[in-house]
Amino acid sequence: MEKQAVLLMSYGTPNRTEEIWDYYTHIRHGKEPSQALYDELVGRYEEIGGVSPLAHITEAQRAAIEEKLNESGTGEYQVFNGLRHIHPFIEETLTEILNQGFTSIHGLVLAPHRSTFIDQYHERVEAKLQTHPEVTYHPHYHFWQATGFLTFWSDQIQAALHPTRKQKFLFTAHSLPERLLANGDPYVDEIKEAAQAIVNQVEGTVDFANAWQSVGRTADKWIGPNVEDVTEALVTQENYEEIIYLPFGFVADNLETLYDNDIECKEQVEALGGHYKRLAMPNVHPDFIAGVVSELLSSNE
């Protein structure tokens, strides 16, 4: 059976402080940040220990997915990481895959919910493969539907439910500019459907809502309501005692979860008199890895 390549794609993160300037410039489409913006971002990384653990986690996820795929008995696989904003860039990794002679490539973005933003990753791959008709590309989308992904979050909710405390489980995902949601973009609907599907697996009543976090600093209007406004209303107007955050739009600990949630949201909740809790991220949890693998194997069935 032919050996297959799997290209895992993600946003990327600096591996060390010295990479932050170039990384930030790349995110800004080649426009260098002001010193003030750069210093603020560096300060955020310093608050969480200097750099994000995301790069190490992404590599660990790659290794775990490769191991699980090769244990499946469905063939031989080699898994690669390709990043959007830092080396190894998607195109660089794809060149490596092609140079090794692979003619079957599975592509999956490490983001559970589909959007036009996520589709751009696959479009970059397909553009490069236009001159390689011998290669078959299998794009994979919205793996939030995988049992392992749903179970990972529902089990944590089950364990966190308190019989007497007034709790709100807040499902959060990265906001996007509203302009990206034109022409039937599925992102918002998939976020809401995924939250409901997770809650449906929990025994008992789950009081939950959706909110959007990590809004970018652009002139665009971004999807709302934002997590800060929702948090304030829940504690001050609806008298919730505990806000439990599930940043289920992400699949690993990163700057957004460790700073935006564990520092900013925590400070806000506690300043308002509430109790803050964030559920653990998937990282390399076996349920999550199994869910990703089941999605990757689905096109082989």
From TrEMBL:
<comment type="function">
    <text>Involved in coproporphyrin-dependent heme b biosynthesis. Catalyzes the insertion of ferrous iron into coproporphyrin III to form Fe-coproporphyrin III.</text>
</comment>
<dbReference type="GO" id="GO:0006783">
    <property type="term" value="P:heme biosynthetic process"/>
</dbReference>
<keyword id="KW-0627">Porphyrin biosynthesis</keyword>
<dbReference type="GO" id="GO:0004325">
    <property type="term" value="F:ferrochelatase activity"/>
</dbReference>
<keyword id="KW-0350">Heme biosynthesis</keyword>
<keyword id="KW-0479">Metal-binding</keyword>
<dbReference type="GO" id="GO:0046872">
    <property type="term" value="F:metal ion binding"/>
</dbReference>
<comment type="pathway">
    <text>Porphyrin-containing compound metabolism; protoheme biosynthesis.</text>
</comment>
<feature type="binding site">
    <location>
        <position position="52"/>
    </location>
    <ligand>
        <name>Fe-coproporphyrin III</name>
    </ligand>
</feature>
<dbReference type="GO" id="GO:0005737">
    <property type="term" value="C:cytoplasm"/>
</dbReference>
<feature type="binding site">
    <location>
        <position position="256"/>
    </location>
    <ligand>
        <name>Fe(2+)</name>
    </ligand>
</feature>
<dbReference type="InterPro" id="IPR033659">
    <property type="entry name" value="Ferrochelatase_N"/>
</dbReference>
<dbReference type="InterPro" id="IPR019772">
    <property type="entry name" value="Ferrochelatase_AS"/>
</dbReference>
<feature type="binding site">
    <location>
        <begin position="44"/>
        <end position="45"/>
    </location>
    <ligand>
        <name>Fe-coproporphyrin III</name>
    </ligand>
</feature>
<feature type="binding site">
    <location>
        <position position="28"/>
    </location>
    <ligand>
        <name>Fe-coproporphyrin III</name>
    </ligand>
</feature>
<feature type="binding site" description="axial binding residue">
    <location>
        <position position="11"/>
    </location>
    <ligand>
        <name>Fe-coproporphyrin III</name>
    </ligand>
</feature>
<keyword id="KW-0963">Cytoplasm</keyword>
<keyword id="KW-0408">Iron</keyword>
<comment type="similarity">
    <text>Belongs to the ferrochelatase family.</text>
</comment>
<dbReference type="Pfam" id="PF00762">
    <property type="entry name" value="Ferrochelatase"/>
</dbReference>
<feature type="binding site">
    <location>
        <position position="174"/>
    </location>
    <ligand>
        <name>Fe(2+)</name>
    </ligand>
</feature>
<keyword id="KW-0456">Lyase</keyword>
<protein>
    <recommendedName>
        <fullName>Coproporphyrin III ferrochelatase</fullName>
        <ecNumber>4.99.1.9</ecNumber>
    </recommendedName>
</protein>
<dbReference type="InterPro" id="IPR001015">
    <property type="entry name" value="Ferrochelatase"/>
</dbReference>
<dbReference type="InterPro" id="IPR033644">
    <property type="entry name" value="Ferrochelatase_C"/>
</dbReference>
